[in-house]
Amino acid sequence: MSDAVIFERDDAIVTLTLNRPETRNPSTDPDILKALNDAFARIATDAGISCVILTGAGKAFSAGGNLKHMRDREGGFGGSAADVADQYRQGIQRTTLALYNLEVPTIAAVNGPAYGAGCDMACACDIRVAAEDAVFAENFVKIGLISGDGGAWLLPRAVGLSKACEMTFTGDPVDAPTALACGLVSRVVPNEALLPTVRELAARIASNPPRQLRMAKRLLREGQVTRLDSLLELAAALQGACHHTRDHEEAVRAFFDKRPPKFVGN
Description:
It contains twelve helices and nine strands. By secondary structure, the chain is α/β, with parallel strands linked by helices. It has two domains: about 5-205, Alpha-Beta Complex (2-enoyl-CoA Hydratase, Chain A, domain 1); about 210-255, Lyase 2-enoyl-coa Hydratase, Chain  A, domain 2. Helix 5 (about 115-125) packs across helix 6 (about 150-160) and helix 6 (about 150-160) crosses helix 7 (about 160-170). The protein is globular, with a radius of gyration of 19 Å.
């Protein structure tokens, strides 16, 4: 069987492709979750990686939970209520945390439907770019469930509480133009332009000093959960460290020399 997730690296950019197109890339399947967790662990320990793209093979980004597994009580959905809860903790919840906690910027290239856990996986990324055929749905209530993978925390931070409530309580799908209007995605592009557009964006991100990229992401994340005075204290400490890096010195020299900087990661 082919790899559940394809890991491709181009210099400082990694592209992860969910690779179960015949079942619309179900993001709760154990083989996909294991492959993603392994990939995230690999990325987390590699200082040479500066940006990650997450996308899906075929016509879907991810259809979310595997309904056949739910029906047959297999995969991560078998056993008692306590068993299922443990499988959520060790399965999709672990993956959500690993993706959200990656130090490097992440971009979801949403190539088609992103339903349920697939929508939440996209929300765990820092940036979302949608193809014209992309459709988003927080549709757990439609199958008698709630978001077990962090959507209740992630989605309001992406679209605001009112829109998140509307999407959650109705379970209705949101097309790409609506996703753009509510801030769920930062841009919508033609289907065939999705990966070239995202790769160009990733390249522009990865052209910046890698250590400062990680610090910038950490500040943005801390800003969502902490007070301004606490964030300023962290920013002061990180900024002090930045001023003593070779990449900061190189950026300033390159500015005055009117040339592109050459960053070394320290």
